[in-house]
């Protein structure tokens, strides 16, 4: 494995694995979130929140997830910087060539937009639940009332709630775009692609990106307009 | 089937005396170009008219003029090998342009391909990658087994041939925002990895070529697919996946 | 005549090469390391030679004018490479390949060389496959073959329509291996400007670095020139823009003799000229004639309507189509050799049956093959060629017949070499299309690739040892010796002179002019009066060139106009030499057709009594008539017959 991490493909593999890991996290996170839709009393969701907050495995995974993000971002930055250095002079005229997607050329920007959102998101939820402990409590269990925390955000802040809703929907879309390219790209990087799989992976990535984008947008919309 | 005549064209082209000087764009007017002419014939005509005016003609690379030697380059109106697909610049015809149009011509812009003069760049870094391992180690001295002793399934031959069709033009790196040489390297690695003859050295080959590619300062592939879209030989990025596979499985054993 | 000792080995034809190899001298591995060999050209011939010699242990310096060895014009060969493998079991053999080649060459080649070519041909295929050349395969995994013009067996190996490319990339890969191991030093973007001769032996070359414009001196114990053909004398040809006869002419002017310069092959299936802005002609592979049928209208009115664009090919009913090749040559039909097919097309067009607006085109029709085999089969066979045709002409050949016309394609003539491929200058060798040796007056399709690789992989590695064995005591030539300095000075003076003209016309102007003269008088049909006119006109053109040329820019640095000027200066001299040769050869043979020498039904008539020799020319000075030497060809193994493809 000597020099593995300094090779271009090695670095790409790190990107790909960390990206896929984050994808898994997104899926878990999304499925829990969607519980809100199925129980307007919030019981179901809060149970899940409670489970996530107390389960030792999840506790272990928290720092791992953080590392995943850091690795992903650090390598994204290294790759992006190297790539800019490899192209010192830019073209005067560039036409949109028929590449796979706009996203494929703007992953770093998309990534940072997602990151910016994440910071907001963490302040709004994670910090309140885990650090300052200012989140509401469910009387019965004594655990955090995640449900209330979430729904309040989208319903109790007047116009600001609409802004939050828009920001969250936008983030969902950006995430979808990031994944539209990232998902199949990760497989390509691992080497899981050939003539036949090429179109399959594209289709899969597109479907998956829609799932993420819609999945994450649907909640704020639901809460803002239907609760 | 007489071709239409383009009465006037404005050719905006990059001029640079040599690697050490700064370049700039110049615009030249030319008249009466038949749409049946090739793009490079248009360049010839422009150069003839420049020489007549005592201006040094625009230097550009070209040789076979039939899309196979890989010598011609040019980034025309924002696209490697110009506004058509599956062709090289020398196969581009003036049918693709309109009267009165301004055509912008730039050299390949890749850090590892420095400009030599005007539109000519130095693509020797591609050769260097191949020197590092783009071959099968067989002596050229005869006494080899009969060719038909090596059976190659038709599909494998087809896929190897798809990859082997690379002409080394550099459009892949030139159209890549990261200046990545992956498609070129993948084409060679994939060609040889698909054949029984190439099995023995496949691991070393992938490692050596990728190491050289990185060393020469090409960028990292982010799978944007621009290379595949502009490759005159339509080499698929599925070959890049094979390169990744070859490289990763070789590296894991180190 | 001693200067033309062809060194043909004794013994029966089939034993000559074996005997020869057994007798020639060999250099020990330890001594090989001390010997430097210069290889100019990295096409199939030069590339294969450089790789093989380096593999043997010599120090090789290889040169090409392109930016990479991989771009030599061998890359453009489409159709395939012959080899006497008899994989199809259709009674092919080394002798049959030899016989076809000699006969196809109209008995103007050297038996021993041609036989050796056929003899080593199977090894070429083995070599290439081992290197990873992806030759076409059958479904069972064995190698596929196709048939080619002028022969009755199927012995052509191919890689889609890109055989030359794949073979060259094979040779280039072999070179890369040696470059990687430090046995070859590659000099790209370098043009050979002069050969250096010291004490009667070739010891090096002078090159111009095309990037910096500087002249460089390179020494070696032997110099191999493998710089390809000179078809570009005609300006328009299927050759690459940079193909040139420069290196061959320089060595000719330094004492290497030039043989049969007038033997030029005109390829019947090229895309017709579209206008006077045309810069080069594109070949449509000969393999197309396997499935395409060549025709023109039977009625002149139809042809005229086609020319005016009032009618389409598809409007002409079956019975009004003249499949003139099938009509004239029933046994070979559309697969007659190139020279025959080309002249037949010219004959029809001259008679007023040409089918495009210039009247210089015939149809090549795939409708019949599509009807018989189906669209998919034809697509699989020729897809990329059809696509190329459509890109160039904007016409879809699946729907509408292709239009083709003959164009200059290959030069059989070249530097005279003996059996060892050595020129008349000791230590100076010539390989591949640049030499004259194997194809007589006409080359069969798919045989040039075979020759290039045979020379490079299997002949020169042996024969060069015979000379070098005596050179092991010679130190590496000193590039500061008087001979080198003088050669450099002369080259410098030549460049100065070109610059100092400061006239009014561009290089291309003269090149086109030369092309017109050559095509008109030294083209597909030649006669005494025309050839004399040609010589006069060329001499006049030379004067104009040297008094009215204009090269803008600087001597230093890259100067593409200067590069062209250097080449065109040599083309003019070469054109003149070709005209002298054509004038001397008052017979029709192969690609050379003298209107004075024809049978009653208009077919070419050979004159074995007076012309069964190679015309070998010795340079006598600028603008002076060269001296003719003759290498009499002895045919001990084939009977000379008039070629008949009827
Ligand atoms: C369009 C086309 C299709 C063909 N198809 C076939 C086919 O199907 N089958 C077949 O058998 N043959 C075919 N031929 C013929 C065959 O390709 C050539 O005859 C053969 O490849 C010549 O090889 P070569 O090595 O002698 O020369 P080339 O491949 O022409 O190489 C010449 C080399 O010399 C170098 N050079 C030239 N001048 C100089 C100089 N002054 N200084 C330094 N370097 C120099 C060049 O850079 C180049 O590397 C075809 C030819 C053409 C043009
Ligand atoms: C939830 C968050 C994220 C997920 C699920 C995710 C997922 C992915 C995936 C799967 C890939 C494809 C890897 C490959 O091409 O092999 C990828 C690529 C990339 N990601 Fe992310 N990512 C996330 C956040 C971020 C962040 C915060 C950044 C910040 C800068 C970022 C920047 C990038 C870049 C630049 C690439 C392209 C790198 C390349 O292809 O070489 N991502 N991402
Ligand atoms: S992969 Fe395609 S674009 Fe890249 S060098 Fe080869 S032919 Fe050119
Ligand atoms: S000039 Fe050869 S590919 Fe364009």
UniProtKB/TrEMBL annotation, chain A:
Coiled-coil ranges from the UniProt annotation: none
Superkingdom, natural source: Bacteria
SUPFAM superfamilies linked to this entry: Fumarate reductase respiratory complex transmembrane subunits (SSF81343)
Bilayer-spanning residue ranges: 12-38, 58-81, 107-127, 161-180, 201-223
CDD domains xrefs: SQR_TypeB_2_TM
Keywords: Membrane, Transmembrane, Transmembrane helix
Matching Gene3D superfamilies: Fumarate reductase/succinate dehydrogenase, transmembrane subunit (1.20.1300.10)
GO CC, alphabetical: membrane
UniProt key word ATP-binding: no
Alphabetized NCBIfam families for the sequence: sdhC_b558_fam
Name of the featured protein: Succinate dehydrogenase subunit C
Organism: Balneicella halophila
UniProtKB/TrEMBL annotation, chain B:
Pfam families: Fer2_3, Fer4_8
Domain of life: Bacteria
Assigned keywords, A-Z: 2Fe-2S, 4Fe-4S, Iron, Iron-sulfur, Metal-binding, Oxidoreductase
Cofactor(s) the record lists: [2Fe-2S] cluster; [3Fe-4S] cluster; [4Fe-4S] cluster
GO MF annotations in UniProt: 2 iron, 2 sulfur cluster binding; 4 iron, 4 sulfur cluster binding; electron transfer activity; metal ion binding; oxidoreductase activity
GO biological process entries: respiratory electron transport chain; tricarboxylic acid cycle
Domain (4Fe-4S ferredoxin-type) ranges: 157-187
Keyword Transmembrane set for record: no
Protein family (similarity comment): Belongs to the succinate dehydrogenase/fumarate reductase iron-sulfur protein family.
Protein name (database record): Succinate dehydrogenase / fumarate reductase iron-sulfur subunit
Organism per entry: Balneicella halophila
TrEMBL record, chain C:
Compartments where located: Cell membrane
Sample GO molecular function, one term: electron transfer activity
Organism for this UniProt entry: Balneicella halophila
Domain Fumarate reductase/succinate dehydrogenase flavoprotein-like C-terminal: 511-645
Family of this protein: Belongs to the FAD-dependent oxidoreductase 2 family. FRD/SDH subfamily.
Active site: 338
Keywords: Cell membrane, Electron transport, FAD, Flavoprotein, Membrane, Oxidoreductase, Transport
Name this protein carries in UniProt: succinate dehydrogenase
Lineage: Bacteria, Pseudomonadati, Bacteroidota, Bacteroidia, Bacteroidales
Coiled coil (residue ranges): none
């Amino acid at each position: 494995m000597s020099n593995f991490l300094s090779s271009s493909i090695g670095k790409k593999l790190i990107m790909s694995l960390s990206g896929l890991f984050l994808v898994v996290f997104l899926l878990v996170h999304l499925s829990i979130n969607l519980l809100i839709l199925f129980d307007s009393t919030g019981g179901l969701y809060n149970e899940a929140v409670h489970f996530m907050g107390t389960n030792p495995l999840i506790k272990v995974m928290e720092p791992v997830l953080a590392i995943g993000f850091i690795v992903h971002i650090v390598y994204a930055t290294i790759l992006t910087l190297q790539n800019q250095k490899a192209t010192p002079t830019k073209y005067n005229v560039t036409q949109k060539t028929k590449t796979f997607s706009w996203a494929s050329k703007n992953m770093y920007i998309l990534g940072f937009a997602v990151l910016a959102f994440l910071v907001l998101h963490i302040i709004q939820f994670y910090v309140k639940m885990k650090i300052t402990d200012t989140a509401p409590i469910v009387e019965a269990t004594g655990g955090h009332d995640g449900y209330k925390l979430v729904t309040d955000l989208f319903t109790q802040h007047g116009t600001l709630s609409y802004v939050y809703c828009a920001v969250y929907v936008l983030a969902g879309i950006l995430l979808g775009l990031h994944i539209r390219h990232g998902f199949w790209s990760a497989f390509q990087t691992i080497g899981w692609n050939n003539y036949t799989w090429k179109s399959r992976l594209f289709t899969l990535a597109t479907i998956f990106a829609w799932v993420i984008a819609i999945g994450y947008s649907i909640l704020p919309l639901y809460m803002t307009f239907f609760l | 089937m007489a071709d239409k005549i383009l009465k006037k064209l404005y050719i905006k082209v990059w001029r640079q005396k040599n690697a050490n000087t700064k370049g700039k764009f110049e615009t030249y007017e030319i008249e009466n170009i038949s749409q049946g002419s090739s793009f490079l014939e248009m360049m010839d005509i422009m150069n003839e008219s420049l020489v007549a005016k005592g201006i040094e003609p625009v230097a550009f690379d070209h040789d076979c003029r039939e899309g196979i030697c890989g010598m011609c380059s040019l980034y025309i109106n924002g696209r490697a090998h110009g506004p058509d697909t599956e062709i090289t610049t020398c196969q581009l015809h003036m049918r693709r342009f309109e009267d009165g149009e301004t055509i912008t011509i730039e050299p390949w812009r890749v850090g590892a391909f420095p400009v030599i003069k005007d539109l000519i760049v130095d693509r020797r870094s591609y050769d260097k990658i191949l020197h590092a391992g783009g071959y099968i180690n067989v002596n050229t001295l005869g006494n080899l087994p009969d060719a038909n002793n090596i059976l190659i399934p038709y599909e494998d031959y087809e896929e190897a041939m798809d990859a082997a069709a690379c002409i080394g033009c550099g459009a892949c790196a030139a159209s890549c925002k990261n200046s990545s040489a992956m498609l070129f390297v993948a084409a060679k690695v994939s060609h040889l990895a698909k054949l029984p003859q190439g099995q023995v050295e496949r691991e070393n080959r992938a490692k050596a070529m990728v190491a050289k590619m990185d060393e020469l300062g090409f960028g990292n592939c982010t799978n944007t697919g621009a290379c595949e879209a502009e490759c005159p030989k339509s080499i698929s990025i599925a070959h890049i996946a094979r390169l990744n596979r070859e490289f990763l499985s070789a590296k894991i054993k180190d | 005549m001693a200067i033309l000792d062809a060194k043909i080995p004794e013994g029966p034809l089939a034993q000559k090469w074996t005997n020869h190899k057994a007798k020639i001298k060999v250099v020990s591995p330890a001594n090989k390391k001390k010997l430097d060999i210069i290889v100019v050209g990295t096409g199939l011939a030069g590339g294969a030679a450089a790789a093989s010699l380096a593999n043997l242990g010599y120090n090789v310096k290889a040169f090409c004018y392109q930016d990479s060895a991989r771009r030599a014009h061998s890359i453009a060969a489409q159709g395939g490479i012959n080899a006497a493998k008899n994989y199809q079991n259709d009674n092919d053999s080394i002798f049959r390949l030899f016989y076809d080649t000699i006969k196809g060459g109209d008995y103007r080649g050297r038996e021993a060389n041609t036989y050796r070519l056929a003899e080593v041909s199977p090894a070429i295929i083995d070599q290439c496959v081992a290197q990873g050349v992806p030759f076409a395969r059958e479904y069972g995994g064995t190698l596929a073959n196709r048939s080619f013009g002028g022969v009755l067996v199927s012995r052509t190996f191919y890689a889609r329509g890109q055989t030359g490319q794949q073979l060259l990339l094979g040779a280039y890969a072999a070179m890369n291996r040696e470059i990687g191991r430090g046995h070859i030093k590659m000099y790209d973007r370098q043009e050979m400007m002069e050969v250096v001769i010291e004490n009667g032996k070739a010891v090096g070359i002078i090159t111009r670095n095309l990037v910096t414009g500087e002249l460089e001196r390179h020494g070696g114990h032997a110099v191999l020139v493998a710089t390809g053909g000179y078809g570009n004398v005609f300006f328009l040809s299927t050759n690459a823009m940079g193909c040139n006869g420069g290196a061959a002419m320089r060595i000719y002017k330094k004492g290497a003799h030039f043989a049969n310069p007038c033997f030029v092959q005109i390829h019947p299936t090229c895309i017709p000229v579209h206008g006077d802005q045309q810069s080069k002609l594109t070949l449509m592979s000969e393999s197309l004639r396997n499935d395409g049928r060549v025709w023109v209208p039977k009625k002149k009115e139809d042809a005229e309507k086609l020319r005016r664009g009032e009618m389409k090919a598809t409007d002409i009913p079956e019975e009004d189509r003249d499949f003139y090749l099938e009509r004239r040559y029933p046994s070979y039909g559309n697969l007659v050799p190139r020279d025959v097919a080309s002249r037949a097309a010219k004959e029809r067009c001259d008679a007023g049956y040409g089918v495009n607006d210039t009247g210089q085109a015939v149809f090549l029709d795939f409708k019949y093959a599509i009807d018989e085999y189906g669209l998919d089969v034809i697509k699989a066979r020729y897809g990329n060629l059809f696509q190329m045709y459509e890109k160039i002409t904007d016409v879809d050949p699946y729907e509408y017949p292709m239009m083709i016309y003959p164009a200059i394609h290959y030069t059989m003539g070249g530097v005279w070499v003996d059996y060892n491929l050595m020129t008349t200058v000791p230590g100076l060798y010539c390989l591949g299309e640049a030499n004259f040796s194997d194809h007589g007056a006409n080359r069969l399709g798919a045989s040039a690739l075979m020759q290039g690789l045979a020379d490079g992989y299997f002949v020169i590695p042996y024969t060069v040892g015979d000379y070098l064995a005596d050179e092991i005591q010679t130190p590496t030539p000193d590039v500061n010796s008087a001979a080198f300095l003088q050669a450099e000075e002369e080259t410098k003076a030549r460049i100065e002179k070109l610059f100092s003209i400061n006239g009014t016309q561009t290089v291309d102007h003269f090149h086109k002019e030369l092309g017109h003269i050559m095509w008109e008088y030294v083209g597909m049909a030649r006669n005494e009066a025309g050839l004399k006119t040609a010589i006069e006109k060329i001499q006049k053109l030379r004067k104009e060139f040297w008094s009215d040329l204009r090269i803008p820019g600087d001597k230093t640095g890259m100067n593409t106009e200067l590069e062209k000027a250097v080449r065109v200066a040599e083309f003019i001299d070469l054109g003149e030499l070709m005209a002298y040769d054509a004038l001397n050869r008052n017979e029709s043979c192969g690609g050379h057709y003298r209107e004075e020498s024809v049978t009653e039904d208009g077919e070419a008539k050979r004159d074995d009594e007076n012309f069964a020799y190679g015309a070998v020319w010795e340079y006598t000075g600028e603008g002076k008539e060269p001296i003719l030497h003759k290498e009499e060809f002895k045919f001990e193994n084939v009977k000379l017959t008039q070629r008949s493809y009827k």
